[in-house]
């Protein structure tokens, strides 16, 4: 009876973690779309720096209240993570600017096979045939939904390549650091968020000026725009935290596969809230195909041999806890 209750508890936490990520991620996309499209705030890199500043404040408050225990993350690993994470942010912004929407979406889809490659290379993960096919179905479904015109240029291809690899490495590294140093989501955020906030606030205005030819300090910060910026920062706290929680529980590949559900939700909400693009037949068919692939992936990867990691030893030591949400630290289970 005890194992069943433990499994049920883990399943409930998995669902709650994923729903937390979906709600915050879709929410921040909707708020940022209103901020940028309606109010003309195009300083995406600086805004991300503000997001991590808000996240840093949250981790400091929680540490002062005793919810986050002291932990250690070596400086070299911290620097590597921040480099990957910041390259991901800047790379995605530049890729969106230099590429067509179609090629930008193709590049985002490439993150799944790249994440699979990293897991196979570093974690010795094995995928069954059904798991591989289910991932392919998800990719095809999302591609049908989102890809329109596709045009490629040399600098856009370079930007997309940097964005894809840095994002995949950053997401893999979240899972790796949590396992290696027994870090919970709050602990890892407490180490990485301040460095990301400082670096992005320092470099963000220059990157945004390069991309938009507008200075962030000359923007008209009226009450409505400031409200949306603050709301975006508040939601970003949940988005950053939920990303670390989900990758810690699901691995980067599962996070990417399930993440395409957010793409579908954004399309649907965009239709109802902004009304610019209709849900035509091929978009609806793509959505149905992607959802079917996600269901297949969940079933295939949970079966014995569907997605397994070889056993390997980890440094001994007492696992740390968030104080708010306990995360799995087992390595020899299905992932």
From TrEMBL:
InterPro entries: Sugar_P_trans_dom, TPT_transporter. Residues 302-335 are annotated as: Disordered. It is a multi-pass membrane protein. Keywords: Membrane, Transmembrane, Transmembrane helix. The keyword Transmembrane applies. Pfam families: TPT (PF03151). Residues 23-297 form the Sugar phosphate transporter domain. Its main location: membrane. The chain crosses the membrane at residues 12-31, 43-66, 78-96, 133-150, 156-174, 186-207, 219-241, 253-275, 281-300. It is found in: Membrane. One of its GO terms (cellular component) is membrane. PANTHER family: SOLUTE CARRIER FAMILY 35 (PTHR11132). This is Sugar phosphate transporter domain-containing protein.
